[in-house]
Write a structure and sequence with these properties.
The chain is α/β, with parallel strands linked by helices. The chain has twelve helices and six strands. The protein binds 2-acetamido-2-deoxy-beta-D-glucopyranose (4 copies).
Length: about 325
């Protein structure tokens, strides 16, 4: 991996969501029967510019209530020592880890709301939000993104969505973010009445974001579109709904919990470079007990907690080389 720049390495996380791991991972529920991404699946907000302090008490209450409502399955976040765990891929508690994640929700929130995790999205705010310029306010936005090398796969995703998901919804918007499509592909999408094609502003963002396999464009798309909708459904081009998905159930869960994702049972610690954890002032070993939450499919509820404590710190990390 020596050819990779540090900036890219940092977010060369096929799945990310370490900051969530301590916070909200256990809030998520998973129904992989309904949403089964292909194996290749690797895995906002207004107002950050103001100087007003976020309402910490309200956010803490949101998190505390959700944690108490979550059905915490000890098999998902195990309490087994890494010295005893035989399978190196499985989550376990590293008793040698010198740092601990904060045990209080408020303390963790205060960390994530620090200016340094909010400022980059403010600095690039007008560029990021340009992605959503031509989009009116919606209840549901489904968004995917691809360049030419994933176009075939995206085409199949659109077909799958129309067959299995959109038949159940009255109103929604399907957004396709152009990460580098050729003219023929753009024309094909432009002809499809239910597709809103939007360009990604690579030229006005830090250069590392143009390296597509860094995936730093992903949180920026989520940051841009979340304020435009009640629920944002982000999908990698490899996502497929296997049966007529019960989207009403999924959406209800997303409203109650704030977020819904798919999970990989292996530890997030294994698939994430240390620099990503370090960005948040943490050590990788602190995350060894947590399975991976995959960013390849996610439902995001447009609310303060999700915008400030999840999406903004994630997008900020993506922006910093
Ligand atoms: C985890 O296991 C350790 C050692 O077995 C024990 O001391 C600790 O209380 C357990 N923690 C939880 C949250 O169950
Ligand atoms: C913890 O440290 C001890 C002593 O150095 C070592 O034998 C053990 O393998 C370490 N455990 C883990 C999980 O790193
Ligand atoms: C919005 O529409 C304008 C005018 O058609 C176009 O120039 C611009 O590229 C569009 N924005 C995006 C993000 O696609
Ligand atoms: C899925 O939904 C469509 C539209 O409601 C219906 O025509 C189709 O039979 C359903 N398929 C399955 C497998 O239930």
């Amino acid at each position: 991996m020596s050819g990779l720049s540090h900036g890219c390495l940092k977010r060369r996380v096929l799945s990310f969501i370490l900051l969530l791991a301590s916070l909200v991972a256990i809030l998520f529920s998973f129904r992989s029967v309904v949403f089964s991404p292909h194996p290749r699946v690797v895995v906002s907000g207004e107002g950050y510019g103001s100087t007003s302090r976020p309402d910490i008490d309200t956010l803490t209450q949101t998190l505390t209530v959700r944690l108490s409502e979550a059905e915490i399955d000890r098999k998902i976040v195990p309490n087994i020592s890494c010295d005893e765990e035989k399978d190196v891929r499985r989550p376990c508690v590293n008793r040698n880890c010198t740092k601990k994640l904060p045990s209080s929700p408020q303390e963790r929130l205060l960390q994530l709301l620090e200016r340094k995790f909010q400022l980059p999205v403010v600095t690039y705010g007008s560029v990021i939000h340009r992605i959503a310029d031509n989009i009116s306010q919606q209840d549901y936005i489904f968004v995917t993104a691809a360049s030419s090398n994933h176009f075939e796969e995206s085409r199949a995703l659109l077909k799958n969505l129309r067959e299995r998901v959109f038949s159940q919804l009255q109103k929604y918007l399907l957004v396709f973010i152009n990460l580098g499509l050729n003219n023929q592909e753009k024309e094909e999408l432009a002809k499809q009445e239910d597709v809103h094609l939007a360009d990604f502003p690579f030229h006005d963002l830090p250069p590392h974001i143009s390296t597509l396999w860094c995936y730093s464009w992903k949180p920026l798309i989520i940051q841009a579109l979340l304020p435009k909708t009640k629920l944002l459904i982000y999908m990698d081009s490899s996502v497929r709904f296997l049966e007529n998905a019960t989207v009403s159930w999924l959406f209800q869960r997303a409203v109650e919990r704030g977020l819904q994702f798919l999970r990989n049972p292996q530890s997030v610690f294994l698939h994430t470079v240390d620099a990503t954890f370090n960005y948040y002032g943490d050590q990788a070993c602190q995350y060894q007990p947590f399975p991976e939450i995959l960013a390849g499919f996610g439902v995001y509820h447009n609310e303060d907690f999700v915008r400030r404590a999840v999406v903004a710190p994630w997008a900020s990390c993506a922006l910093v080389p």
